[in-house]
Amino acid sequence: MAVPMALGALLDGGDVGGAVAVFVDGEPVVDVWGGFADAARGVPWERDTIVNVWSVTKTMTALCALVLADRGELDLAAPVARYWPEFAAAGKEKVLVRHVLSHTAGLPDWEGPVDELYDWTSATARLAAQAPQWEPGDAAGYHSITQGFLVGEVVRRITGRSLGQFFADEIAGPLNADFQIGLPAEDDHRVAPTVPPPTKDEDYAASAPGTSVAGIRVRDGNSVAWRRAQIPAASGFGNARSVALVQSVMACGGAARGVRLLSRAGCDRAWEEQFNGEDRLLGRHARYGLGYGLFGTTYGWGGWGGSLVMIEPDRRLVMAYVTNQMREPSDDTRGLEMLMAAYEGLQGSNV
Fold first, then answer.
1. What is the set of domains in the chain, with CATH numbers?
2. Are 117 and 145 spatial neighbours (Cβ–Cβ below 8 Å)?
3. Quick count: other Cβ atoms within 10 Å of Cβ 199?
4. What sign results for the dihedral spanned by CA atoms 87, 91, 97, 101?
5. What's the pLDDT tens digit per position in 205-242?
6. Which of 91-98's residues contact partners 24+ apart within 8 Å by CB, and which partners?
7. Full pLDDT tens readout for the chain, 351 residues
8. Which one of 55, 212, 235, 248 is the catalytic residue?
9. CB of 120 within 8 A of CB of 155?
10. Comparing C-alpha atoms, which of 302, 299, 295, 290 is closest to residue 100?
């Protein structure tokens, strides 16, 4: 009961809504939700309510690249320009695929208008023309928005499919996971819009160190244009159950619920340390693998607004927390509280 109690405490304390799922061996041992899907607290958060999980989406995008690498279609040590020739412009011929996945490519800043994020061709053309801010691989700076386009265009060049379509066909579909990058209109009624932190309004933007989506406002993330677009670093929609299910593949050696997406070696490759040091953008120490943050023997990532996924392969465990209630990042420990509650709940059990 530790996780339900912890979620209940957040809702009792003023959060609008949220959900937590804990999966072990690819199956749910905890799957709870509560509160409301709207700021006015008139629409209950239901079992199939979905929410923008912001940068938790990066773990889904990384999985797409890892699947292609495991199939031999993508060389993570190859230059990005091998697959995307135009990318070699402005001194980027030495940027490797693994640099993009580990935030060391030197392209951390989105320099265009928000509206351009909704146009894949324009967004990727802008990044192809951009010069790196440092020697690729020598430093890290969180690629909050750019990482998704960079990985996604490589996936598109190899497969002929958009990142969202590849994810739907090769990952979410086989797993029957309710997670989408590029949300169709028929699912709008299930969305719990993001609620800004108390004392803030929808013009609240991520611009301070440590935030995930620099310069983008809450109202942008709540727009129809954002939902329809494929912004593979930040525009994934799902719930705690679907996040935990997909990432159970990584917790369980490449397979979940009888569906094998990649080999154990291909799965373990994600945890190979690519960078360990000060992140120039976040202003704090970071360890990066291939698409995942490394935290001891636990791996994962969080999103602007509080959502979090953490993976512990030693226990074949995934904890996912999603919420529509933002808090100021410096004050937000909710995801870690849910993780600690998950560990507490599993202690002494047979799980």
1. 2-346 (3.40.710.10)
2. yes
3. 7
4. negative
5. 976 444 444 579 999 999 999 999 999 999 999 999 99
6. 91/131, 91/132, 92/130, 92/131, 92/132, 92/136, 94/135, 94/136, 94/137, 95/132, 95/136, 96/136, 96/137, 97/65, 97/154, 98/274, 98/290
7. 899 999 999 999 999 999 999 999 999 999 999 999 999 999 999 999 999 999 999 999 999 999 999 999 999 999 999 999 999 999 999 999 999 999 999 999 999 999 999 999 999 999 999 999 999 999 999 999 999 999 999 999 999 999 999 999 999 999 999 999 999 999 999 999 999 999 999 999 976 444 444 579 999 999 999 999 999 999 999 999 999 999 999 999 999 999 999 999 999 999 999 999 999 999 999 999 999 999 999 999 999 999 999 999 999 999 999 999 999 888 899 999 999 999 998 885 655
8. 55
9. no
10. 290
Among 33, 64, 39, CA closest to 240: 33
Express each pLDDT in 46-82 by its tens digit: 999 999 999 999 999 999 999 999 999 999 999 999 9
Mapped onto helix, strand or coil, the DSSP state of residue 12 is helix
Distances (CA, A) of 27 to 21, 252, 257, 318: 10, 11, 8, 10
Task: Give all strands (DSSP E) within 144-296, no chain letters.
Answer: 180-181, 236-238, 255-256, 259-260, 275-279, 284-288, 293-295
Enter the tokens of residue 216: 């983008």
Calpha distance 285→277 (Å, rounded): 5
Rg, the chain, Cα only: 19
What H or E segment, with its residue span, contains residue 152?
A: helix 146-159
- Locate all alpha helices (DSSP H) within 197-328, ordered by sequence: 218-221, 224-228, 240-251, 264-268
Distance (Å, whole) CA 339 – CA 345: 10
Q: Is 55 a catalytic residue?
A: yes
Contact indicator for 207, 214 with CB cutoff of 8 Å: yes
H/E segment holding residue 312 = strand 308-312
Helices (H) and strands (E) in the chain, counts: 12, 13
